[in-house]
Amino acid sequence: MKSTLPERVKGVCSPPSIPLPLTRVDASVELLKALADPTRLQMIGVLKRSAQPLCICDFTAAFELSQPTISHHMGKLRDAGLVDVTKAGIWAYYRLNSHLDAKTRALLEVLV
Question: Residue 45: which residues within 8 A CB-CB, separation 6 or more?
Answer without folding.
Answer: 112
